[in-house]
């Protein structure tokens, strides 16, 4: 929240309002200030979170921020400007802009563009961007600073001496919404007249890029202060025109659309048409069209009260232009159609040269056969911007290519010349690329498992999660309100702990998640250059595992056999051998069955080297069997995630068991008490609570996912700063048996440690009229016999022994075929606890 300040404090400098004397002193030391700030990189997510919070405040008519800023709008400025800013500052728009212009939502991170090479690339800030804002467009200045922030720069902006403090206070509100202070630390907004050349020099001297709006004189005035090697980014005045193919000038709808473009903003926008070209060399056709179009303009209502009236110089230009055109009527060169009150004018001219209009609903109409278009337009190529084209589909395609070749940067239909789309380039360039540098780091083979170089340099700092804890029912309710435009991909969960739940994603979110999971797979030791991978996850029924890992391998450029899990294990084994697969992706339950049933063939093949698994865990005994029986060298988690949140964690080559690194560029992790919303002590077990920062159209904050775990202290031996945690089962693994609580995973550990049991294990709970029954189902082929296992459970688990001794529980160990264990129909995942008492 900003406060009221004395009128002399009209400069905003890194979070505070200051006066002229202090601003002058700080300007003299600007170079040192920039160096200090750039030492700490700015996370893109920090900018997105602050901008999104400001957008929500501006879009709320009752919000005090909107009220405060509304009072500072320039005289005559439409309050709808605040709604326009809210749209452009929202997470959806800014993320789309980042993706389009810089290729992703976190462009500053040094990732591997080709996973098969240890080469890292990123977009880095240029450093300091000086913005010289125009005095007639209140939204330009703040949005220019936001562009500079998205590129990670320090930004110093000059507003005109006569401007209100709207931009200063808007940026102060933005800075206040970032609790880290990093955003405010990169913003300086000064208000001074261009006559104050010394301040302009001090502002530009340490700059790495200077962005300036205005005409040639304004650009020249600033360019004099731009040091050698500094980028001069010109957002100068541009000229736009309409071009009508033969026949289009007879279409009433085309004429109405053209009038919309002329009258909207009274031609004050660079994309407003100043000339209408007809694809003809017939002057009679030009005069006839001008007369028809004049009638359309005459029927338009007058400019509204918010429209800026011509100043004396503009009035003089309007009068002079019309007078000269009327004089040339006597030479047969022109014909003038104008309103009696001077509110509009159509100037027909038989000469094709591009002529600037005096604006305020003043339009030239000229002939320009398409074969002469380039010759006529190219001399003005530095100033060309938008061409609004009307005609057939073929005409539009041909004319679009023609005017682009002549220097136009933007082609639209008539009626849309002043409309844009999200991520549209401006004057032929992407602003974020002009405020960035493309940088690269080449590394050696020691970095083979390092997917992001930044993880070795520093921890990520994302906004601190806030709000209530959410459960699965809360998330289902949120899914019901996801906008149709954000629900592009539908996935069902595996249903291993209940009915399958629906999760919705945009394709952008899916892409972000798949790229993160791909980076995690590299860290786990996957080699996209050498591994030959069989994708054996389950497919169909809207279940996402197979599809997701297909996408991940595609992004890694890895060799893939997209087999999917199926009942014909012999055919699968045959395909693995025939195509020389050495790496298996899949669910432990399925992979265990496949390897056990086709052991002879796969042992004889001897080519399997790696297993990456997901959804469940292999026990230590199973891992030993995989090593000793099948020669598999690497058995590692492929990812830790959920259908609704996507990939949450990944293993590195130094991780074992349930230990994972957090995907810290996507999520924040809290570990809270089993019963209350409070953090556990360091190292204690608690509920895992995730907050996702990068989801379009959904706010999945503080989601209690249903898993238990603990944080691991210190930096991982792999060198990554990404936080580590250890999975310790699911809350559903804890069974209430009689009057005691028993963890299913404890039974698995007892079976493994006491009898070296290496198969799967399932707990089934039932009840009769007398007592409860716990049936522990084990695989017949791997079990030493039911009785030794039963004795091991009673000995190793005092709670079970007490329940049995008190006559409250029957404990039964049942040896069965592995195929008869109860599994999820969708994912094939083993249902570890089957409670039939309800």
Overall form: elongated
Arrangement of strands in the largest sheet: 2-1-6-5-4-7-8
CATH architecture of the domain at 11-236: 3-Layer(aba) Sandwich
Q: Describe the largest sheet.
A: 7 strands, mixed
Q: Proportion of β residues? A: 15-25%
In round numbers, the mean pLDDT is 92
In percent, how helical is the residue content?
25-40%
Could you name the CATH class of the domain at 11-236?
A: Alpha Beta
What is the number of strand segments? 36
Identify the CATH homologous superfamily of the domain at 11-236: Aldehyde Dehydrogenase, Chain A, domain 1
Assign the CATH topology of the domain at 11-236: Aldehyde Dehydrogenase, Chain A, domain 1
Distance between the termini: 53 Å
User: Which residue ranges are poorly predicted, with pLDDT under 50 across at least 5 consecutive positions?
Assistant: 1-6
Tally of DSSP helical segments: 26
Rg computed from alpha carbons, rounded to a whole number of angstroms:
34 Å
Helix vs. strand class: alpha/beta
Walkthrough of the structure:
- This protein is of the alpha/beta class and 838 residues long.
- Among the domains are: 226 residues, 3-Layer(aba) Sandwich (Aldehyde Dehydrogenase, Chain A, domain 1); 175 residues, 3-Layer(aba) Sandwich (Aldehyde Dehydrogenase, Chain A, domain 2), CATH 3.40.309; 98 residues, GMP Synthetase, Chain A, domain 3.
- Helix content is 33%, strand content 23%.
- The strands form 8 sheets. Strands 2-1-6-5-4-7-8 form a 7-stranded mixed sheet, with helices on both faces. A 7-stranded mixed sheet has the order 11-12-13-10-9-14-15, with helices on both faces.
- Helix 10 links the parallel strand 7 and strand 8.
- The longest helix is centred in the middle third of the chain and has 18 residues.
- The protein is elongated, with a radius of gyration of 34 Å.
């Amino acid at each position: 929240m900003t406060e009221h300040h004395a009128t002399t404090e009209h400069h905003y400098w890194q979070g505070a309002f200051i006066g002229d004397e202090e601003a002058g002193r700080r300007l003299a030391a600007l170079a040192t200030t920039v160096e200090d700030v750039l030492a700490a990189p700015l996370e893109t997510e920090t900018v997105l979170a602050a901008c999104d919070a400001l957008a929500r405040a501006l879009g709320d008519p009752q919000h005090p921020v909107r009220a405060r800023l509304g009072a500072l709008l320039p005289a005559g400025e439409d309050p709808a400007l605040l709604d326009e800013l809210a749209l452009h500052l929202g997470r959806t728009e800014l993320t789309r802009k980042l993706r389009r212009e810089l290729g992703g939502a976190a462009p500053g991170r040094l990732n591997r563009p080709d996973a098969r090479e240890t080469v890292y690339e990123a977009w880095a800030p240029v450093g300091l961007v000086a913005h010289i804002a125009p005095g007639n467009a209140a939204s330009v200045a703040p949005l220019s600073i936001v562009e500079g922030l998205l590129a990670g720069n320090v930004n110093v902006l000059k507003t005109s001496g006569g401007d209100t403090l709207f931009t200063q206070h808007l940026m102060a509100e933005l800075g206040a919404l970032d609790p880290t202070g990093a955003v405010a630390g990169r913003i300086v907004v000064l208000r001074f007249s261009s006559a104050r050349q010394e301040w302009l020099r001090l502002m530009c001297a340490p700059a790495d890029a200077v962005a300036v709006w205005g005409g040639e004189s304004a650009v020249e005035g600033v360019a004099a202060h731009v040091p050698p090697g500094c980028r001069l980014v010109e957002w100068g005045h541009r000229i736009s025109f309409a071009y009508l193919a033969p026949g289009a000038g007879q279409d009433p709808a085309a004429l109405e659309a053209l009038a919309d473009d002329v009258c909207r903003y009274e031609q004050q926008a660079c994309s407003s048409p100043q000339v209408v070209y007809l694809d003809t060399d017939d002057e009679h056709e030009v005069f006839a069209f001008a007369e028809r179009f004049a009638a359309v303009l005459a029927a338009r209502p007058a400019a509204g009260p918010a429209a800026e009236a011509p100043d004396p110089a503009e009035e003089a230009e309007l009068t002079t232009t019309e007078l000269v055109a009327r004089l040339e009527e006597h030479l047969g060169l022109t014909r003038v159609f104008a309103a009696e009150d001077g509110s509009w004018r159509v100037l027909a001219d038989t000469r094709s040269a591009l002529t600037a209009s005096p604006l305020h609903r003043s339009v030239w109409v000229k002939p320009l056969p398409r074969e002469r278009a380039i010759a006529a337009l190219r001399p003005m190529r530095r100033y060309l911007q938008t061409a609004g084209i009307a005609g057939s589909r073929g005409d539009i395609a041909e004319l679009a290519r023609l005017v682009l070749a002549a220097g136009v940067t933007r082609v639209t239909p008539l009626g849309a010349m002043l409309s844009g789309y999200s991520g549209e380039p401006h004057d032929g360039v992407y602003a974020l690329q002009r405020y960035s540098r493309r940088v690269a780091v080449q590394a050696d083979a020691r970095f083979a498992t390092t997917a992001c170089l930044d993880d070795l340099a520093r921890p990520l700092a994302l906004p601190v999660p806030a709000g209530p804890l959410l459960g699965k029912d809360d998330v289902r309710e949120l899914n019901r309100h996801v906008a149709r435009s954000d629900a592009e991909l539908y996935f069902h969960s595996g249903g291993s702990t209940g009915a399958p739940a629906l999760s919705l994603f945009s394709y952008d979110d899916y892409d972000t998640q798949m790229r993160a999971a791909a980076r995690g797979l590299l860290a786990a030791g996957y080699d996209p250059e050498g591994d030959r991978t069989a994708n054996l996850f389950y497919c169909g029924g809207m279940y996402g595992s197979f599809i997701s890992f297909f996408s991940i391998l595609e992004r890694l450029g890895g060799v893939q056999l997209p087999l999917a899990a199926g009942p014909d294990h012999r055919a699968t084994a045959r395909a693995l051998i025939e195509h020389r697969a050495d790496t298996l992706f899949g669910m432990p339950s399925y992979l265990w069955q496949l390897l056990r049933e086709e052991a002879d063939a796969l042992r004889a093949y001897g080519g399997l080297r790696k297993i990456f698994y997901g959804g469940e865990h292999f026990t230590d005994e199973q891992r030993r069997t995989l090593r000793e029986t099948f020669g598999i060298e690497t058995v590692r988690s492929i990812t830790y995630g959920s259908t609704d949140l996507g990939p949450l964690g990944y293993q590195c080559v130094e991780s074992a068991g349930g230990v994972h690194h957090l995907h810290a560029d996507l999520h924040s992790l809290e570990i809270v008490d089993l019963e209350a919303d409070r953090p556990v002590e360091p190292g204690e077990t608690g509920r895992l609570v995730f907050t996702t920062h990068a989801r379009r159209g959904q706010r999945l904050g503080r989601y209690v996912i249903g898993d238990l775990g603990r944080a691991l202290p210190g930096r991982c031996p792999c060198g990554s700063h990404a936080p580590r945690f250890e999975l310790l089962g699911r809350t559903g693994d804890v069974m209430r048996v009689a009057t005691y609580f028993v963890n299913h995973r404890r039974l698995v550990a007892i079976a493994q440690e006491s009898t070296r049991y290496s198969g799967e294990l399932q707990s089934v709970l039932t009840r009769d009229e007398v007592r409860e029954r716990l049936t522990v189902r084990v695989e017949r082929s791997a079990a030493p016999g039911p009785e030794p296992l039963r004795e091991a459970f009673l000995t190793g688990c005092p709670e079970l022994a007490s329940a049995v001794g008190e006559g409250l529980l029957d404990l039964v160990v049942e040896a069965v075929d592995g195929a008869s264990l109860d599994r999820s129909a969708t994912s094939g995942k083993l249902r570890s606890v089957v409670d039939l008492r309800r």
